[in-house]
Amino acid sequence: MNAENVTEKTIVSDINRSVYDVRNEDKDAYRFAAGLTEEIVLQLSKEKNDPEWMRDFRLKSLEIYNKTDMVEWGPPIDGLDMEHIVTYVRPKDNKMSATWDEVPAEIKNTFDRLGIPQAERESLAGVGAQYDSELVYHNVKKEVAEQGVVYSDLESALHGPYEEMIRQHFMKLVPPTDHKFAALHGAVWSGGSFVYVPAGVSVEIPLQSYFRLNAPGAGQFEHTLIIVEEGAYLHFIEGCSAPKYNVANLHAGCVELFVGKNAVMRYSTIENWSKNMYNLNTKRAIVAEGGKVEWISGSFGSHVSYLYPMSILNGRGAKAEFTGVTFASEGQDLDTGCKMVHNAPDTSSYINTRSISKADGINTFRSSVVISRNAAGSKSSASCESLILDDEARSDTIPAMDIKCDEVDVGHEAKIGRISDEAIFYLMSRGLSEQEARALIVSGFADNVSKELPLEYAVEMNNLIRLEMVGSIG
Amino acid sequence: MSNLVMNQLPGRTFEWLGVNEAVLSGMEESYEALHYKTELTGKIDCAQNGGTDIYQIPGNYKAEQPVYFWLAYDRSARNQIEIRAGKGSEATIVMDHSALHQHGEKELQGLLSTKIVAEDHAKVKLIEIQKAHAGVRFVNELHVECMEGAEFEITQLFLGEGAFYQDLHCDLKGYGSGFQADTAYLIGKQGKLDINYVATHYGKKSSSDMKLNGVLREQADKIFRGTIDFKHGCVGAVGTEKEDVLLMDPTVDNKTVPLILCQEENVSGTHGATIGRLGKELLFYLESRGMTKTEVYEMMARARIDALVKRIADERTRSAIWAEI
C-alpha cells in the first residue's frame, strides 16, 4: 500500500455531554399547534398582549414569509418542515422572576447545571434566561440600573416607556423582506431582550442572555434589540443550548444592534445548540461615526447553521471586527461567516476566523465585504483559516469582495490544511498522548476567539473543543 | 436574441452580490464560422470532426516553435477547437485575438470554445492575447484535462474597453498534474471583464497556481471568480490563487470571489487578494524622486502589464504585444 494512504484511527469513547442533554418533560407546558397560519400568529399576538402595530407587523411578516422563496445557496434544510414546528411553548407555571428562587425548580435546576446563576454572581452585570418561548428570569445589578441602563425582556419593554423607541428600531435593520426566515421571525418572535445604554455610560462587566430550548419539535424566535448611545460601552454575551431530540428543532432569532457615535459594542456568542437544530439566525449592527462593533462568535452546535452577522458602517471612521471559530463534527453542516458593508469614508473592518471540521462535518466560511462609492479611505482585512481533521470532513471557503471605490485598501487571505505531523510528533515526544496533542493544537488554533472571551467562557469553549475532539485521532 | 448563462460559481453565495454567474443578454441565435489563420509547426496535424477543428500533437514530439492562431473577428462568429497533446509531448500555442480591436467601432460577438487534453507527461503552454474595443463582446471558453504528470500553463492578457467573458476549467485528473495561470488585465472606459477560473484537483499531488495582476480605470467593471476545488482522494494536492488589483479611478467596480472547496484532508490551499491603491510608502518614495502621483500610478499600471509580457518566452509574441500596447 502506498504510504500516503495509510492512516490509523484510534477510537476513544465519548465524553458525557449530560450537562447539555438533560431534558425536562414538557407534558404540562402550554403549546400551540404545530404549523404556521394566520390564526396561530393572531393567537401568539394575543398571548403576548401586543400593541396593535405589533400585531399588524406580525401579520405583514407572515404575508412576506408566504411569498418568499428559500435561498438557492447554503446547506440543505429539507429536514425542516414548518408544518411540524411548534412556534410557541410556554413552560408550566411560568412567570418571569427577578430572583432564581421564584423560578420553577425543574427549570432552575437546568440553568444551575449550565452554570448561569453562578456566572451571574461572579462575573455578570445582569442576566436574562429564556426557556422555550418565554423569559423565566431577568435581573440587572442595581448599580448598573442606577446608571440608567435598561436591561429587560423585550415584551415588558414594549408596554413601558420605551415602546416608542422599540417601535422606531424593531426590525428596521433586519426587515422581514430580508429573507424568508427574517419574515418568519417577524411573524412569530417571542422573548428576547431589550438593552438601552445611555450616552457616555460604560457598562464595565458584561450582560448575558441565555437561551434554552427544551421542547422537542419547537422553534425559538427570540429578538434581541440593543441600543448603545453616543460614547457608551457594552459587552453583551449570548449563550444557547438544547437537549438532542430525534425531531427537528428550529432557532430563527434576530439580533439588532444600534451603535451610536463613538460608542463600542461587543457581542459575544457561544452557540451550542443540539445537533437536531436548524439554526437560521440573523444578526446585524449599524455603527455611527467613530463607533465600533466587535463580534465574537463560537459555533459548536446545530445540525444546520446559516449565520452571518452583518456590520453596516454608516458613519465616518466606524469600525467592525468579526472574530469567529466554527467546529463542525458528525452530522453537522455549518455555514457561517460575516458581512461587512462600508458605507462611509474612513471606515475599517477586520475579519479573523478559524474553522475546524471532523468526521462528516461540513464547514463553510461565507463572507462579503462591500465598499460603496462614498467610502473613500476605507480599509478591510480578512484572514480565514480552516483545519480538516480527517478525510471524511469537508471545508469550503466562499468569500466575496465588491469594491466600488479606488481610495481603499482591501486584503484577504485564506488557508486550508491539516495538522502537521511534525507538530503532533513534537508534542508526543514531550509526553502528551496523540489525542491530547491534537486537542491542544486545535485549542491553540481557535485561540483567536478564546482570548477575546471572559475567562469563564474561554474555559467553556475549550471544554467544548476537547469534547468535540474525542475520537478524532486518525 | 437569447440569454447565455456562463461563468457559474462552483459554490453559490449571497444572490444580492450578483456574482453567482454571468448572464449575457442579447446573444445572437446563430453565428457564422470564425475564420482564423494558423501557423503550424513540424508534425502537428489538423482534422475536422463535426464542426470542431482538432489539432493533434504526436506523442513525445517537442515542438521547437510555437503554434500560432490568429483569429479574425470581422463579424459575429464562433468556432470550436480541440488540441490533443500526446504523451510526453511539449508545445506552446499562441492565440491572438487582438483582431477584436481592429474593426473600428463595429459591434460584434465572438465565441470561441477550446478543449485541450494533455496526455501523460505532456506540457502545453497557451498564450492568449485578448484586446477589444467598446461594442465587442467576446466569450472564450476553455476546458483543459491534464493526465498523469501533465502540465498546462496559460498566460492571458486582457486589454481594452470591450466585454470579455472568460471561462476556464482545468481538471487535474492525473497524479502530479499541474496548472498555472499567469494573467494580467488593463480595462478602461466602460469595459467589462468577467473571469471564472476553476482548478479541480482529482489527482494525487496535483498542483494549481493562479496569479492575476490587473488595473481598472474609468468605469471599468471586473469580476474574478477563482476556485480551487480539492476533490476527495487528491492526497497531497496544493493550490494557490492570488489577485492584485490596482484601482485608478473612483468610478471602477471590482469584484473578487476566491473560493477554496475542500473534501480532502491532506491538501494545502491558500488564496489571497489585495485591492486598492498603491502603498503609501511606495508612493512617498517615488514622489520623493520627483514623480507626480499621476505619473507614479501610470508607471505602476504599465509595469503590471510589462511584467507579464516579459515572462513570455516567445520573442515574436512579445513584439506583437508591445506593438498593441
Give a structural overview:
The complex is a heterodimer of chains A (474) and B (325). Chain A is of the alpha/beta class and 474 residues long. Chain A is built from 13 helices and 25 strands. Chain A has two domains: 17-307, no CATH class; 420-474, no CATH class. Chain A has helices at residues 18-21, 38-47, 52-67, 105-113, 116-123, 142-145, 154-158, 163-169, 180-188, 421-429, 434-445, 447-450, 455-469, and strands at residues 30-31, 89-90, 126-131, 134-140, 150-153, 193-197, 207-212, 219-220, 223-228, 233-241, 249-251, 254-259, 264-272, 277-280, 282-287, 292-299, 304-307, 310-313, 319-328, 333-342, 348-357, 362-371, 378-388, 394-403, 408-417. In chain A, strands 5, 6, 8, 9, 11, 12, 14, 15, 17, 18, 20, 22 and 24 form a 13-stranded mixed sheet that branches. A ten-stranded mixed sheet of chain A has the order 4-3-7-10-13-16-19-21-23-25. Chain A is globular, with a radius of gyration of 22 Å. Chain B is mainly β and 325 residues long. Chain B has helices at residues 280-288, 293-310, 315-324, and strands at residues 2-6, 22-27, 32-33, 35-39, 45-49, 52-57, 67-72, 77-85, 90-96, 108-118, 123-132, 136-146, 151-160, 163-172, 178-187, 192-201, 207-216, 221-230, 238-247, 253-262, 268-276. Chain B has three helices and 21 strands. The longest helix of chain B has 18 residues, at 293-310.
List keywords for this structure.
heterodimer, A: 474 residues, alpha/beta, 2 domains, 13-stranded mixed sheet, ten-stranded mixed sheet, 13 helices, globular, B: 325 residues, mainly beta, nine-stranded mixed sheet, 3 helices, 53% strand
Strand and helix map with partners:
The complex is a heterodimer of chains A (474) and B (325).
Chain A: H1 18-21, E1 30-31, H2 38-47, H3 52-67, E2 89-90, H4 105-113, H5 116-123, E3 126-131, E4 134-140, H6 142-145, E5 150-153, H7 154-158, H8 163-169, H9 180-188, E6 193-197, E7 207-212, E8 219-220, E9 223-228, E10 233-241, E11 249-251, E12 254-259, E13 264-272, E14 277-280, E15 282-287, E16 292-299, E17 304-307, E18 310-313, E19 319-328, E20 333-342, E21 348-357, E22 362-371, E23 378-388, E24 394-403, E25 408-417, H10 421-429, H11 434-445, H12 447-450, H13 455-469
Parallel strand pairs in A: 3-7, 6-9, 7-10, 8-11, 9-12, 10-13, 11-14, 12-15, 13-16, 14-17, 15-18, 16-19, 17-20, 18-20, 19-21, 20-22, 21-23, 22-24, 23-25
Antiparallel strand pairs in A: 1-2, 3-4, 5-6
Helix pairs in contact in A: 2-3, 3-9, 10-11, 11-13
Chain B: E1 2-6, E2 22-27, E3 32-33, E4 35-39, E5 45-49, E6 52-57, E7 67-72, E8 77-85, E9 90-96, E10 108-118, E11 123-132, E12 136-146, E13 151-160, E14 163-172, E15 178-187, E16 192-201, E17 207-216, E18 221-230, E19 238-247, E20 253-262, E21 268-276, H1 280-288, H2 293-310, H3 315-324
Parallel strand pairs in B: 3-8, 6-8, 7-9, 8-10, 9-11, 10-12, 11-13, 12-14, 13-15, 14-16, 15-17, 16-18, 17-19, 18-20, 19-21
Antiparallel strand pairs in B: 1-2, 4-7, 5-6
